[in-house]
Amino acid sequence: MEIYVVDSYEALSTRAALIVAGQICAKADTVLGLATGSTPLGMYRELTEMHKKQKLDFSRVISFNLDEYLGLAPDNVQSYHYFMWENLFQHINIRPENTHIPDGLAADTDAACLQYEQALQRAGGVDLQILGIGRNGHIGFNEPSSRFTGPTHVVRLSEDTIKANARFFASVEEVPTHAITMGIKTIMQAKKILLLANGKEKAQAIKAAACGDIDPAVPASILQLHPDCIFLLDREAAQYL
Ligand code: PGA
User: Would you call 123 helix, strand, or coil by DSSP?
Assistant: First the structure.
């Protein structure tokens, strides 16, 4: 694991976007694993700028998102489908058919998870996976005590995650209780991983993930075993390292 610490969220976003852009320049048909949440928003803004000003070309890029809430339709403003179109996809030249996000409305969720894994394998696997991290150390929606060997699956969200994500909803009761998430096994199969974290509320999780035992109680700690993983942090998130 390599750890880089930068001064600000802006610097983190620019550096992250440069890593993604470098990956796309090296391999035009890159398979990107994408994340939602507050953390990657600045990176998505930078990538949009790079597309508009420097013609960064997403026309052959394929994307697979980490997760989606169960029960939310793609046009629901709280869904991760909506988030991705609002914050990135509509601003760049990625082809809609090349974007993949788990189906939050799937009638047969087990079949939907299997199909997602199969589509990912058909695309050749993720070249570069972007991750955020939960205050509880989760990656994707793999909550503490998730199996390290799990593929894409349905999860029940922890109370901590529901509380943390309530800020995006009118009330905590509206936060879905379940989601489909890439499993830790799926995430670990990515060729390269870039985890982003900013702010002091992530500092404990970063310390546990980077320096603690490799323990299912801290799902991100498994990243210590990944052969090509970068933690890109601001000073606040890195304060206990
Ligand atoms: P955040 O979420 O970027 O909104 O902090 C990250 C996560 O929960 O994985």
Answer: coil
CA 132 – ligand 1 centroid, Å: 5
As a 3-state breakdown, the chain gives helix, strand, coil percent values, each rounded to 5, of 40, 20, 40
**232: CB partners within 8 A, 6+ apart:** 4, 6, 12, 15, 16, 19, 194, 195, 196, 197
Q: Mind listing the pLDDT tens digit for each residue in 13-32?
A: 999 999 999 999 999 999 99
pLDDT score at 145:
87
Annotated catalytic residue within 81, 138, 153, 226: 138
For ligand 1, pick from 66, 130, 133, 196 the residue to mutate: most ligand atoms within 8 Å of CB: 133
Task: Catalogue the E-assigned strands of the chain.
Answer: 2-6, 31-34, 62-65, 67-69, 99-100, 128-131, 153-156, 178-181, 192-197, 229-234
Tell whether pTM > 0.90: yes
Strand 31-34 and strand 67-69: the pairing is unpaired
| Alpha carbon of 164 to ligand 1 centroid (Å) | 8
To the query of whether residue 143 is one of the catalytic residues in this protein, the response is yes
Cα–Cα distances (Å) from 97 to 63, 89, 100, 215, in that order, read 10, 11, 8, 37
Partnered with residue 155 across adjacent β-strands are: 179
| Residue whose tokens read 């972007």 | 130
